[in-house]
Amino acid sequence: MNRAWSTVAARTASVALLVAGLAGGVYLGEQAGTPEAAGFAQVEVSDMQLLKERQNEHTAARAMRHEAETEAAGKAATEAKRAAGEARTLEKKRITKKKAEAEANAGPVPFTGPIPGSCKEFSGSRAVGCTLMLAKGFGIAEFPCLNQLWNKESGWNYKAENRSSGAYGIPQALPGSKMGSVAADWKTNPATQIKWGLGYVKGRYKTPCGAWTYFQNNGHY
Q1: Closest CA to 155 of 119, 126, 180
Q2: How does pLDDT run across 2-21, given as a tens digit for each residue?
Q3: Is 139 left (phi over 0), alpha (psi -120 to 50) or beta?
Q4: In degrees rounded to 5, what are phi and psi of residue 162?
């Protein structure tokens, strides 16, 4: 009899637990629909929105930082290019100036050929001019004309330069680089200049006296 009673009691307890569980489930279901539960849900939505806003802000900040860095890099590259260009320009000017100074201080290239007796009364570039004139086939009587012609043009100065026209050297070749057809040292070698000048005189006026006559009538040759 005791064992039967125990069985009934166990079944009664199980049913009680089941009823209590169902009641608890109903209560929790009811609680889910209460204002407190809705408030919790609203807080969760607000937190999500705040999180998204912060993410958007961070994304925008990164984009702005990247844009600023790109712009700064571009400005730096432009500045570096400008500075390099200025440096190249200054270096070219320095080289040009140094070359001009070297040319100004160079020369004259000495004449190594023999001076004939008929020309020894002259000195310097005039003695060279007399010597080369004879070698060109002109008689000594032509030298007074050549001497006067180039006295007027340059004073027999191998560095003589006309700033307005660009004519250069003893014969005042225009431009001076024409004398490069004789030799590359036309800026500093009186003999190179004289050879070119004698060729120009012979080709255009036949003789130095012909060139001097033309100069007297026209002011140039």
Answers
A1: 126
A2: 444 455 455 555 545 444 55
A3: beta
A4: -90, 110
Query: CA dist 156 to 52, 167, 215, Å?
Result: 92, 14, 16
Cite the DSSP H helix spans in 106-179.
Answer: 124-135, 143-153
Residue 144 in tokens: 């007074």
Q: Are 216 and 152 in contact (CB under 8 A)?
A: no
Q: Which of 209, 179, 204 is nearest to 194 (CA)?
A: 179
Token representation of residue 199: 């060729």
pTM of this prediction?
Answer: 0.57
3-state secondary structure of 11: helix
pLDDT 10s digits, 35-91? 665 666 676 777 888 888 888 888 888 888 888 888 888 888 888 788 788 878 778
